[in-house]
Amino acid sequence: MEVKSTAVKQHSQHLSSDRTWVDLFPSTIRPYLYLARVHNPAGTLLLFYPCAWSVTMACYAHGAPVSTVWTYVGLFLAAAQVFHSAGCVINDMWDKDVDAAVPRTSTRPLASGDVSMFGAFAFLIPQLALGIWLLMQLNEYSLRLGLSSLGLVVLYPAMKRVTNWPQAVLGLCFNWGALLGAASVVGAVDWHVYIPLYLGAANWTIVYDTSYARQDRDEDAKYGVRSTTIIFGDQIRPILAMFSAVVCSLVSYAGYCNGHGWPFFCGVAMGALHLARLLARTDFENKESCDATLLSNAWFGFWVWAGAFADLLLKTQ
User: Fold this and answer.
1) Helical H runs in 214-286?
2) Is residue 272 a contact partner of residue 239, using CB atoms and an 8 Å limit?
3) Is residue 45 within 8 Å of 76, Cβ to Cβ?
4) 48 to each of 200, 291, 293, how far by Cα in Å?
5) pLDDT tens readout for residues 84-134
6) Residue from 292, 285, 287, 211 nearest 247 by CA
7) pTM of the full predicted structure?
8) Chain centroid offset of residue 212 CA
9) What's the rounded Cα separation, in Å, for the pair 76 and 175?
């Protein structure tokens, strides 16, 4: 893999407050770890939680033991890390030139020239192979369902050039786990339950990715990158509040269809309060505030999962 020195030097010159554990690795390895975003857990958690919701809800509906939850949650956590890293590589390969022109993304390894396109492609192949191997640990139905999402994963970066709603496309591919989790447990999908869950999670992606991408609105408009941040304009807060209400309504409806009790809905309520608080406190004119929304949104995913898991524990007592 061809490695240049530019971004390595930039990373090594960061202030100590900006350094991450990745900087402990040799300079030849470091840029690939940054390319895969392994230093930032936000994306992995946002990809993981819909899987965890689905697994836990399926175990609740079919009376599976708690140990089944831990088995599949562990598998999906590993898969979330691998597929999120692969997705970041694919995204950066598509956006290399635009990233180089935007200050926030100009130090990304591909944009800065620290990793070549060939190096990125060579790095991507084993990640995809590992991801497919993880899917192969599931039943045949789940394997086919999982592989059917790869087209969306590859096409998503192009959507930023052809539609004003790339966040909606991201939501459709990023939350496939809301279907796959249940399929892995029971070998089938109860569409009445998991389509609302999937659509709720997809709307959640619109909320957090629009909030996060707001910091790049001016640059996106300048370089022709389309985004909901541009079309929402100054009405971003009330529009995202509406989408947040849709998220909570759809997730709650999925829980109702699955026969859940009060712990599940308490979890959704806690998540809703967190989204409302986060939306009220975010300063959409401040880049740091927008950046912080990504990891903070993972708490919504946690509260929904915690409610579903508590409901399962109560049922198995």
Assistant:
1) 217-222, 228-232, 236-257, 262-281
2) no
3) no
4) 15, 19, 17
5) 999 899 989 988 888 888 888 888 999 999 999 999 999 999 999 999 999
6) 211
7) 0.90
8) 12
9) 12
